Inverse folding.
């Protein structure tokens, strides 16, 4: 009504103008307040979701079942998950020896060397299953088998712990990654989860197996009292025997992509498809003669670079293209956007040429009309 009065020349034009300014100010204020509220909600929701769905520390504890072991000595260890590399197919863990029951029943290692040293505190060879450890470049001539591992990874010497030049009781292991379904399937037709092609739905498993033998060839219990560490972007789940162990460390660890990683990839793929369909709609409008802004003809070219940048921002995604998200999302969208960009650009060039020809023809026609004498009546 206010705009109608202004157009019609209302005598209260000045008051109507002030009313419009007031409404505009209120609208700007409402827009600012809405923006602040939505921004606060987005920040709070983003922080809360990210905090509670973040990758948690790998945590597992071994409980020794006394009915399954004959050894009275136990070495206490702490495992720390360092990294997981699907490309190298390797899981890296650090191990720390923090206790030995040869000193005391609770495993506490005294600050000063006992005098005398208990007879049971003899060196212990800690052996991991080397068949699941990755070989170095100089080890390819070694034969692998499924026999019990015999070469120790680390030797724990309680007396050497107090030596002047002794090292800390820390060692590192590297375990191979595999898909459990490949091992248990006789036909080999099981799901191929342990492949980056399945990103972000790929999952991996690593088997950790270790035991201890002392210098008297007696079995020594190994107990992981707690574990820690994070594999960036992965959730680690440990499968241990709920009935307790027999003094060995045997753990099947399953790694899968974190929920936030899957959600981010899903949102990116859906967003790329929506953008692609918008460009397809622009082509349809051009075909039916609807006017399009000039920006619509060049935006697809810039979008191609933006999509590849989004693809590169996916956490842990394989380099290049080849994952399932590329086949069902990124690559088809890139192809469609390229085709629509070429069509719109070609239409723009052709339309400009046709418009130029029409204008040229009209100018020639008007020039001929001026040169043609009019007949007198």
């Amino acid at each position: 009504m206010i705009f109608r009065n202004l157009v019609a020349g209302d005598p209260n034009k000045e008051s109507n103008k002030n009313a419009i300014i007031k409404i505009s100010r209120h609208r700007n204020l409402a827009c600012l307040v809405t923006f602040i509220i939505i921004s606060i909600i987005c920040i709070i929701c983003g922080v809360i979701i990210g905090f509670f769905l973040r990758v948690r520390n790998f945590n597992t504890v071994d409980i020794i079942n006394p009915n399954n072991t004959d050894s009275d000595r136990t070495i206490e260890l702490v495992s720390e998950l360092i990294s997981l590399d699907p490309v190298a197919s390797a899981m890296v863990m650090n191990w720390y020896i923090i206790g030995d029951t040869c000193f005391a029943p609770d495993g506490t290692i005294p600050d000063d060397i006992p005098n005398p040293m208990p007879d049971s505190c003899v060196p212990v060879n800690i052996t991991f299953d080397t068949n699941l450890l990755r070989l170095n470049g100089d080890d390819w001539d070694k034969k692998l088998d499924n026999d019990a591992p015999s070469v120790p990874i680390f030797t724990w010497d309680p007396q050497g712990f107090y030596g002047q030049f002794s090292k800390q009781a820390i060692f590192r292991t590297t375990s191979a990654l595999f898909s459990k379904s490949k091992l248990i399937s006789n036909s080999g037709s099981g799901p191929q989860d342990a492949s980056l092609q399945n990103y972000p739905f790929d999952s991996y498993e690593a088997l950790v197996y270790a035991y201890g033998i002392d210098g008297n060839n007696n079995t020594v219990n190994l107990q992981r009292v707690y574990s820690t560490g994070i594999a960036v972007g992965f959730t680690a789940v440990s499968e241990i025997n709920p009935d307790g162990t027999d003094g060995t460390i045997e753990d099947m660890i399953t790694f899968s992509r974190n929920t936030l990683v899957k959600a981010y990839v899903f949102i990116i793929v859906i967003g790329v498809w929506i953008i692609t369909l918008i460009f397809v709609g622009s082509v349809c409008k051009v075909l039916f003669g609807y006017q399009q802004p000039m920006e619509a003809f060049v935006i697809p070219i810039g979008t191609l670079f933006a999509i590849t940048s989004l693809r590169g921002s996916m956490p842990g995604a394989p380099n290049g293209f080849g994952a399932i998200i590329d086949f069902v999302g990124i690559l088809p969208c890139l192809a469609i956007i390229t085709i629509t960009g070429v069509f719109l650009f070609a239409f723009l060039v052709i339309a400009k040429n046709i418009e130029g020809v029409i204008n040229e023809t009209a100018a020639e026609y008007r020039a001929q009309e001026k040169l043609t004498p009019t007949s007198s009546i």
Remarks:
- The chain has a mean pLDDT of 79.
- The radius of gyration is 36 Å.
